[in-house]
């Protein structure tokens, strides 16, 4: 029989409750003495959630909290009831993450091999893996590039590849950290359309406000706090007003 | 030297397993050095070209790029041999080296990186006995191949940024002014890549991952 130390946290149970969405309870985060986020209490259940804020406002740290890339120094982040501190692997299977710079996200030399990487980590059998990779490449117009070196793709194609590498893992939720910042107008529109068509819950951190059209909820982060939590219209107005006073 | 990546063609060489191709490459290297005659080296070169261009149907450019990238090194080798021994032995050495490089190019251009990595992982399987993870070794190789062009691109970008602001350092100074900012960028990138690996479940690898196809 095993005894638990008095005061120790109960053993983590890997049972997700999809209806609960993403919950942040009294969340704060600091790097050394520098407070990056503080006092955040939120529950995100809407299909489309945007996050805006000035550079250095803490929004990228906020995004990284949602799939356990960053663990809060204060409070708790729960995804479908799973704690990012104790059940990080289960959380990451549920929450995909697309980074701003696809070059840092693509880890294999060729397109198809890179898309397959996440599936290999999940232990998906080779036949199913090949079928899922082919399907995702076809859907995002990369089928003709399957065996091409990833470094020869255009910026837009690299971002599509990075997104395909996440989507193939079929996460229930996807966090995008400034997905269109490095793209031209055509590719930015393409990525925006792709995001709009996703069936997963999506959280998008962005500086490009038109990306938030049709979103259900937008958070404005400033000085490490969520200063506005509203539909896109009022939230963007608050953000603009904040920026005008700088 | 450029790194030839997989060239997709439906050929018997492409279908051959990566392990067999790597064994053939090792056998060729042993043969070239165990039987150091001009006839053997010449026949090996002809055989390599026949397999690469004829059977595997690789574009001539794939192999030509490898030979071209080595031109100064091979020439220097020939000159050194001509000065220290004789031209014939220099030509023989150059022929052996060129054959091996072209044979390696045929292997890499007809084998997917994942297949090559799978062979390395199988060879590293004994690491499990001491708690090592062969998958990590495989990932390391794949990532090295992936990030070499990125590294070159970043270095070019730094040089271009310096040139745009009137800086055109040469020699050791150029090396110093490029290496320091490149290192800073690479450290930042290493951090970003490690986050991406975490986000894609790098720590999730099952103890016995199903084999790659």
UniProtKB/TrEMBL annotation, chain A:
Keywords: ATP-binding, Nucleotide-binding, Transport. SUPFAM superfamilies: P-loop containing nucleoside triphosphate hydrolases. Signal peptide: none annotated. The keyword Transport applies. It holds the Pfam family ABC_tran. One of its GO terms (cellular component) is ATP-binding cassette (ABC) transporter complex. Residues 22-245 form the ABC transporter domain. GO terms for molecular function: ATP binding; ATP hydrolysis activity; ATPase-coupled transmembrane transporter activity. It comes from the Bacteria. PROSITE patterns: ABC_TRANSPORTER_1 (PS00211), ABC_TRANSPORTER_2 (PS50893). InterPro entries: AAA+_ATPase, ABC_transporter-like_ATP-bd, ABC_transporter-like_CS, ABC_transpr_CbiO/EcfA_su, ECF_ABC_transporter_ATP-bd, P-loop_NTPase. PANTHER family: ENERGY-COUPLING FACTOR TRANSPORTER ATP-BINDING PROTEIN ECFA1, HEAVY METAL TRANSPORTER. Belongs to the ABC transporter superfamily. This is Biotin transport system ATP-binding protein. It comes from Geodermatophilus siccatus.
TrEMBL record, chain B:
Coiled coil: none annotated. One of its GO terms (cellular component) is plasma membrane. Pfam families: CbiQ. The keyword Ribosomal protein does not apply. It comes from the Bacteria. The chain crosses the membrane at residues 12-33, 40-62, 68-87, 94-114. The keyword Transmembrane helix applies. Signal peptide: none annotated. It is a multi-pass membrane protein. Keywords: Membrane, Transmembrane, Transmembrane helix. Its main location: membrane. It is found in: Membrane. This is Biotin transport system permease protein. It comes from Geodermatophilus siccatus.
């Amino acid at each position: 029989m095993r005894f638990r130390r008095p005061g120790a946290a109960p053993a983590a149970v890997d049972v997700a409750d999809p209806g609960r969405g993403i919950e942040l309870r009294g969340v704060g985060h600091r790097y050394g003495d520098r407070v990056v986020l503080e006092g955040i209490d939120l529950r995100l259940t809407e299909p489309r959630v945007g996050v805006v804020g000035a550079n250095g406002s803490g929004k990228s740290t906020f995004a990284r909290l949602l799939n356990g890339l960053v663990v809060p120094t204060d409070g708790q982040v729960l995804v479908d009831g799973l704690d990012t501190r104790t059940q990080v692997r289960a959380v990451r299977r549920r929450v995909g993450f697309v980074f701003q710079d696809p070059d840092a996200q693509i880890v294999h030399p060729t397109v198809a091999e890179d898309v397959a990487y996440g599936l290999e980590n999940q232990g998906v059998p080779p036949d199913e893996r090949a079928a899922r990779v082919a399907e995702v490449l076809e859907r995002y117009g990369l089928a003709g590039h399957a065996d091409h070196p990833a470094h020869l793709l255009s910026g837009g194609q690299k971002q599509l590849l990075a997104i395909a590498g996440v989507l193939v893992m079929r996460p229930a939720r996807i966090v995008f950290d400034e997905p269109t910042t490095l793209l031209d107008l055509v590719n930015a529109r393409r990525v925006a359309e792709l995001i709009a068509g996703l069936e997963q819950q999506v959280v998008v951190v962005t500086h490009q406000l038109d990306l938030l059209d049709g979103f259900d909820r937008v958070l404005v982060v400033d000085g490490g706090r969520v200063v506005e939590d509203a539909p896109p219209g009022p939230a963007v107005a608050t953000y603009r007003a904040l920026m005008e006073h700088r | 030297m450029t790194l030839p990546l997989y060239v997709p063609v439906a050929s018997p060489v492409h279908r051959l397993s990566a392990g067999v191709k790597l064994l053939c490459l090792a056998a060729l290297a042993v043969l070239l050095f165990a039987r150091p005659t001009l006839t053997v080296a010449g026949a090996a070169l002809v055989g390599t070209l026949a397999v690469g261009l004829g059977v595997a149907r690789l574009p001539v450019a794939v192999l030509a790029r490898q030979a071209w990238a080595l031109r100064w090194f091979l020439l220097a080798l020939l000159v050194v041999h001509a000065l220290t021994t004789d031209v014939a032995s220099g030509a023989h050495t150059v022929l052996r080296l060129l054959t091996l490089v072209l044979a390696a190019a045929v292997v890499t251009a007809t084998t997917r990186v994942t297949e090559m990595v799978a062979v390395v992982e199988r060879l590293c399987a004994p690491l499990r006995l001491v708690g090592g993870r062969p998958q990590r070794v495989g990932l390391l190789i794949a990532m090295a191949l992936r990030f070499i062009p990125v590294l070159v691109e970043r270095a070019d970008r730094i040089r271009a940024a310096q040139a745009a602001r009137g800086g055109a350092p040469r020699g050791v100074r150029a090396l110093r002014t490029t290496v320091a900012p490149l290192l800073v960028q690479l450290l930042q990138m290493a951090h970003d890549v490690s986050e991406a690996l975490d986000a894609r479940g790098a720590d999730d690898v099952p103890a016995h991952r199903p084999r790659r196809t």
